From TrEMBL:
Domain of life: Bacteria
Residue ranges crossing the lipid bilayer per the database entry: none
Every DUF1989 domain range: 49-214
InterPro entries in the record: DUF1989, UAAP1
Protein name (record): Urea carboxylase
Coiled-coil zones: none
Length: 275
């Protein structure tokens, strides 16, 4: 098939309509070939493969379950959240660590906003190698380590990618606050040194349930403490589906949780019911 003529270029472009690659969202999401076990494909609202060095974003409804999966053990998902209906309210990593009295993320951990509300709850975690302390990589840091950090380079910095995601949702670079990192662990030594614990291996995943409508941005790029001298980040699978029952289950058992979580949960319910 030639593209030397307008007709040939049109025919070539149309021939790509049903193509599936490892770096594109599937639209509609229900066409994703392997939905999660027990989840009907019609429930899927987001299905995408994000290669290393790329980013993605999506607006998710309240009561959505979001799954991130590290396919080969070298992905690192840097996550930011903003309220879709009030984007001045966003993920606050400091409070996400401080309020629950826990710096190490795993099942049950709330992701808190700067207004004391639960934006999402971490409901499943087979990795336990995450980081809420270092943030993502920067242009200067990646340039010093890898020789480049621009979005179009072979070693893009997380902050640069998240800034692009923000812009696509009507936000600005000023809205890119510190992020959470999934699938690359960090631990604090007795002297305060931050030490990389790396990945838990291929196939691990985390799942979040959203408490409010959210703008979700994910940059799949190297962690700031990645010990590898070369940029080598593998693919990240991103799936989301409607799961109001999962949110209702959290509400039904909220009295069994810590008082800090209960208050943040009620803050989210209060703002939602006042719409």
């Amino acid at each position: 098939m030639t593209t030397a003529t307008t007709a040939g270029a049109r025919d070539h472009a149309r021939a790509q309509a049903t193509a599936f690659t490892d770096s594109m969202p599937v639209v509609p999401a229900s066409a994703w070939p392997t939905p999660p076990q027990g989840i009907g494909p019609e429930r899927l609202t987001w299905a995408e493969m994000v290669p290393g060095g790329r980013y993605t974003s999506k607006v998710l409804a309240r009561g959505t379950r979001l799954r991130l999966r590290d396919l080969d053990g070298s992905a690192c998902a840097h996550l930011l959240l903003w309220r879709a209906d009030a984007s001045w309210e966003r993920l606050n990593v400091a409070d996400t660590v401080k309020v629950p009295w826990q710096a190490y993320l795993s099942t049950g951990h709330p992701l808190l906003s700067d207004q004391g509300r639960v934006l999402a709850t971490l409901v499943s975690d087979t990795s336990r190698h995450h980081d809420a302390l270092c943030g993502t990589t920067t242009l200067a840091g990646n340039t010093a380590k890898y020789g480049a950090g621009e979005p179009e380079s072979s070693s893009p910095a997380g902050r640069e990618l998240l800034a692009l995601a923000a812009l696509k949702n009507g936000l600005t670079r000023r809205d890119v606050a510190p992020s959470l990192s999934f699938f690359h662990g960090v631990r604090v030594e007795a002297d305060g040194t931050l030490v990389s614990t790396g990945s838990a291996g291929a196939g691990t995943m985390v799942e979040l349930v959203t408490h409010l409508p959210l703008i979700v941005a994910v940059a799949n790029t190297a962690h700031p403490l990645d010990p590898a001298p070369q940029f080598a980040v593998g693919p990240l699978e991103v799936l989301a589906w409607s799961a109001p029952g999962d949110l209702a289950e959290i509400g039904a058992t909220v009295n069994q949780r810590d008082p800090e979580y209960q208050r943040a949960y009620l803050n989210s319910e209060d703002v939602w019911s006042a719409r």
